[in-house]
TrEMBL record:
InterPro entries: Cro/C1-type_HTH (IPR001387), Lambda_DNA-bd_dom_sf (IPR010982). Keywords: DNA-binding. It holds the Pfam family HTH_3. This is HTH-type transcriptional regulator immR. It comes from Megamonas hypermegale. The keyword Metal-binding does not apply. The keyword Plastid does not apply. Residues 7-62 form the HTH cro/C1-type domain. GO terms for molecular function: DNA binding.
Amino acid sequence: MSFQENLKYYREKSGYRTAKDFADVLNIPYTSYVAYENKGREPKYEMLCKIADLLNVSTDDLLGRTSNIIGNKDDMLIRKIIKDIFDDCFAKNDFSFKITLVDIKNDIDIIVFNLVDLENNINYKINLAKDFVIYNINISEKAAKYQKKYDIFYSLLGLSIDTLVEEVNGLLDDENISNKEIKNLLAKKEKYIKYQQAVMKKATKFYNTSFAYYNNNDEM
């Protein structure tokens, strides 16, 4: 996340509801502070330290230099990152399904997602380990600026659908399963595999484009 995004996030997390509230505490003009959050202007070092102290974070956290973008307790940030990225990326892709974050269950360290089959209006629940989701977000956030959003999108998308396939395979291994249940599960598995193929096709195209972009800019 950028300095502007981090600043707004940590301000709101610390209880300063509006930018003006925090500008008053900093004892600087509202217009000066808004320039930090919205106009890409960075404060001088002394002001940066003052902001970090008031928000109880490090300057590296504000500048986005920490190795871990989010920690295990930052549920609000997890929700924001996933919602913003999924909303944007699904809007720009023509998948026949959509995945949304439903809940974060800290008692069992699980993040619950919901996959909607848009063609048939069928919902599937997906449980992913919270630590695994955070790991994928943190790793992807370290990618090049132009691809980090899609790194997160495709990694979580792939994980979610892989989980559904594994669940079906687990049920198919049950010796007591009926022929009717086998037929239904195989139909589900076929649909999930089509989802996987669609994601892989989009991801491959994106990464090939990103690789070409990186090489072209690296040569300049």
